[in-house]
Design a protein that fits this description.
Structural class of chain A: mainly beta
Radius of gyration of chain A: 13 Å
Order of helices and strands of chain A: EEEEEEEEEEE
Largest interface: A-B, 24 and 27 residues
Strand content of chain B: over 45%
Strand content of chain A: over 45%
Shape of chain A: globular
Largest sheet of chain B: 6 strands, mixed
Radius of gyration of chain B: 14 Å
Oligomer: heterodimer
Number of strands of chain B: 10
Shape of chain B: globular
Structural class of chain B: mainly beta
């Protein structure tokens, strides 16, 4: 299965700033997803990162707050914009291949 | 820890006992289900999956049972070990390769 590298693994950010999270996959994959995991909770899908077109956002998530790039089939970024303490979460990217779904180890974001 | 499972329901079992973790899913049209294990500081790791045309699937020390009538999924872990301590999530796939995750259960194994 694919190996996913996420950067940074963790960060502490000031409110009002933005953080860009990178997801690098060791093979070309068609479908990449971004999830949020709030403290003590399950995973919620933010959006599907589409290569060559705008991401598809789930209800409750908007492009202005969570802009996503997908320049090629092995890389994507998620930006958390104008952060507030409520954005403190683990953000995970995921890919799906024939062998199934694989998740990165996540980016643990704390907004102060 | 990393706050994973802090507010989730907890199942506490003795080492060597069997564990049963339950999950209710939401969409009767879902046709593929996965159980994930998440340890502190890590992303979810695949444990076992099952398609809707089956009601039982076995792996190494794990069994997944699917009851489509009541939209219920369970994960059975045989001879639970301390290394099984983690948060367990079920996930369902119902459209466009997207997964919808259940609420999760924290498993604590007492030595």
């Amino acid at each position: 299965s694919a190996v996913i590298s996420q950067k940074p693994s963790r960060d502490i950010c000031q409110r009002g700033t933005s953080l860009t999270i990178q997801c690098q996959v060791d093979s070309q994959v068609t479908m990449m997803f971004w999830y949020r995991q709030q403290p003590g909770q399950s995973l919620t899908l933010i959006a599907t990162a589409n290569q060559g077109s705008e991401a598809t956002y789930e209800s409750g998530f908007v492009i202005d707050k969570f802009p996503i790039s997908r320049p090629n089939l092995t890389f994507s970024t998620l930006t958390v914009s104008n952060m507030s303490p409520e954005d403190s979460s683990i953000y995970l990217c995921s890919v799906v291949e024939y062998s199934g779904y694989t998740f990165g180890s996540g980016t643990r974001l704390t907004v102060v | 820890g990393e706050n994973v499972g802090l507010h989730l329901p907890t199942l506490s079992v003795q080492e060597g006992d069997n564990s049963i973790i339950n999950c209710a899913y939401s969409n009767s049209a879902s046709d593929y289900f996965i159980w994930y294990k998440q340890e502190s500081g890590k992303g979810p790791q695949f444990i076992i999956d099952i398609r809707s045309n089956m009601d039982k699937r076995q792996g190494q020390r794990v069994t997944v049972l699917l009851n489509k009538t009541v939209k219920h999924l369970s994960l059975q872990i045989a001879a639970t070990q301390p290394g099984d301590s983690a948060v367990y999530f079920c996930a369902e796939n119902n459209a466009g390769n997207m997964l919808t995750f259940g609420g999760g259960t924290r498993l604590m194994v007492k030595p």
